[in-house]
Design brief:
Shape: elongated
Largest sheet: 5 strands, mixed
Oligomer: single chain
Structural class: alpha/beta
Radius of gyration: 35 Å
Low-confidence stretches: 1-64, 294-300
Strand order of the largest sheet: 2-1-3-10-4
Mean pLDDT: 82
Distance between the termini: 119 Å
Number of strands: 10
Length: 300
């Protein structure tokens, strides 16, 4: 072999060896560069900066704009039965996939149930005092909103056979009067109005819900009952109503709030928005409720 061919063979061998040595390094370098590029995107470097934060913001925005879904349980004063039943139907129609489970009773009973752990997403009592009980127990989610007012009236049988024309007539001997119990908002309001008028009431029965008072008058078990004007309006021809000026001293304000232990806070907030919004105000006004802010609602 000539000296030139020998040098050529050696050069070729060295080239092959160098290529074999460089190849793993090149592969390693490529892997590192690829990993850095992927890591940069994940860590928010370069053009993809704050990518994870952007995803979180996007998810938050999507969540805030998402339609309510699932079931909510609403605890509401008995006097809200008609209006909240209508608003619940509206809510379900506007938000397919939702269900509003309604529970109506005396406000004090509902407050006690919530305090004892009863599952509820929304609470709407007929006075500020019972909402305060739940607030003081740390069971309200956010601030309560006042959304309506209501005023007492005297319910009598159609035709007013007892001839009642004023609050003082309810103190007549032999008259069968029914009121709410004192711890119930309508009972507290009745006591306040009677005190303002200087009238001593002696009911033959005290009920735990205003609807029970109305029922006894409608069935003829009582000659008269102190209920809300909205209840008389909802009863139609079953009873007649008599207004009395002393009722202005005991106007009840209705608050509504989410319950801290509620399982569906997003849907609960959406229902609160419906009740306190234009549609809620329309439905409540049609039923005879006054707007929030009339009277201070400070029935103790």
């Amino acid at each position: 072999m000539t000296r030139t061919s020998t040098r050529t063979a050696v050069s070729a061998s060295l080239a092959r060896l160098l290529s074999l040595a460089v190849l793993p390094a090149a592969v390693l370098l490529l892997a590192v560069l690829t990993g850095c590029a992927a890591g940069g995107a994940a860590l928010g470097t370069g053009p993809g900066e704050d990518n994870s934060a952007g995803n979180s913001a996007g998810n938050s925005a999507a969540g805030s704009g998402a339609k309510p879904e699932g079931t909510i349980t609403v605890f509401a004063a008995a006097s809200l039965k008609g209006t909240f039943t209508e608003l619940a139907r509206t809510f379900e129609a506007e938000n397919p996939g939702t269900t509003v489970a309604l529970s109506f009773a005396g406000s004090s009973d509902l407050a006690s149930q919530i305090s004892q752990g009863a599952p509820a997403d929304v609470f709407a009592p007929a006075d500020l005092a019972n909402m305060k009980k739940v607030e003081d127990a740390g069971l309200v989610d956010g601030a309560a909103r006042n959304f309506a007012t209501n005023t007492l009236a005297i319910a009598v049988a159609p035709g007013n056979p007892a001839g009642i024309t004023a609050l003082k007539d309810l103190a007549r001997p032999g008259l069968k009067l029914v009121t709410c119990a004192r711890q119930v908002p309508c009972g507290t309001a009745a006591a306040t109005a009677a005190e303002a008028a200087g009238v001593a009431l002696n009911p033959v029965s005290e009920e735990n819900a205003v609807t029970d008072v109305l029922g006894k008058v409608a069935s003829g078990e009582a000659d008269a009952g102190l209920v809300y004007g909205t209840d008389i309006k909802a009863a139609g021809s079953k009873v007649a109503g008599i207004q009395f000026p002393e009722s202005g001293s005991a106007v009840n304000t209705y608050p509504i709030a989410g319950v801290a232990g509620g399982r569906n806070k997003a849907a609960a907030r959406a229902f609160l928005d419906l009740v306190t919004g234009p549609e809620g105000r329309r439905v409540l006004a049609a039923a005879g409720f006054g707007p929030a802010g009339i009277g201070d609602g400070s029935v103790k």
